[in-house]
Design goal:
Largest sheet: 7 strands, parallel
Number of domains: 2
Low-confidence stretches: 1-10, 27-46, 97-114
Radius of gyration: 21 Å
Length: 243
Amino acid sequence: MATSCTSEPTPIALSGIITGGELVSGSLRGIMRVIEGTLQSTRKSPTRWFLGRASCLSAERVILNFLQRMSGVATHTQRYVRRTAGTGAKVYDTPQDHSGPPAARQIRRPLRRRINHRIGLFDGLLVKDNHVAAVHIKELGAHLSRVVTTCRAEDPSRVVEIEVDTLEQLREVIKVEGINVILLDNMDCPKMEMAVEIRNKAGKKGTVDLEASGGVTLETIRRIAETGVDRIAVGTHALGAGA
């Protein structure tokens, strides 16, 4: 993606899912025209970005790197989203991917079935397996009930998610009221199918979502989606997307 610094605006062609334009347009003194969320082809109708000399010299490389990174993530994410078509599963980013409201909105907007796990550290509670490693399985439900009660007292709207490694843990966690999501960590597809059955038999379908996490690739995501889980956490769309 090359450009030259001239006194006249210089067009730059981008291809893929174009996003991030709104975040950088305020920094440009030139004129920027970006079609958000559309699959662009340099052979057909490329997005054109016009930079004047001053803008090019002061901001070109940083802005280009940012746009390439964001658009690369969105383009790669779209491949995951397409693999889940026809299932009830939605693709979520992992908690560490692109935190912050502006960046999160930009990635979410073009992809209707790709959803942000959270915007920041403040808007969700995730109880990981290592947080309760010292809690006996028979005491797990009571322990988590106290955690949920404390969390709800601070913020009734906060999403509460609990990570489980085994179906035995799931059977205890599903009894706890006030949980929004149960994360199935590194479970294979047969176990995830059993987890969906356990959740449904407990009468929690529609109130408690099951989220698959671990081992999610373009090759495995379709089979994972077909297990009946509601959410699939994917980190490689961000970590592996090239600029």
